[in-house]
UniProtKB/TrEMBL annotation:
Principal location: membrane
Membrane topology: Single-pass membrane protein
Signal peptide start-end: none
Subunit structure comment from the entry: PSII is composed of 1 copy each of membrane proteins PsbA, PsbB, PsbC, PsbD, PsbE, PsbF, PsbH, PsbI, PsbJ, PsbK, PsbL, PsbM, PsbT, PsbX, PsbY, PsbZ, Psb30/Ycf12, at least 3 peripheral proteins of the oxygen-evolving complex and a large number of cofactors. It forms dimeric complexes.
Gene Ontology BP terms: photosynthesis
Species assigned in the record: Streptosarcina moshanensis
InterPro entries membership: PSII_PsbK (IPR003687), PSII_PsbK_sf (IPR037270)
Record PANTHER family: PHOTOSYSTEM II REACTION CENTER PROTEIN K, PTHR35325
Prosegment location in residue numbers: 1-24
UniProt keyword annotations, A-Z: Chloroplast, Membrane, Photosynthesis, Photosystem II, Plastid, Reaction center, Thylakoid, Transmembrane, Transmembrane helix
Subcellular location: Membrane; Plastid, Chloroplast thylakoid membrane
Gene: psbK
Role: One of the components of the core complex of photosystem II (PSII). PSII is a light-driven water:plastoquinone oxidoreductase that uses light energy to abstract electrons from H(2)O, generating O(2) and a proton gradient subsequently used for ATP formation. It consists of a core antenna complex that captures photons, and an electron transfer chain that converts photonic excitation into a charge separation.
Annotated protein name in UniProt: Photosystem II reaction center protein K
Domain of life: Eukaryota
Amino acid sequence: MPAAMIATLAAMIGTTWNGEAVLAKLPEAYAIFDPIVDVLPIIPILFFLLAFVWQAAVSFR
């Protein structure tokens, strides 16, 4: 992988994954949903892992 490509990827990751986005606060009216909102980003990863469990169940056809 060329160094320029690695630098570009690092810059993209650095700009999209900043601390402000992770530590954002919901408005007070929606504060009761904080625990649910904390779990929501994990759901796509669980679906990805479910695909492997499913394939293991059918012997990776």
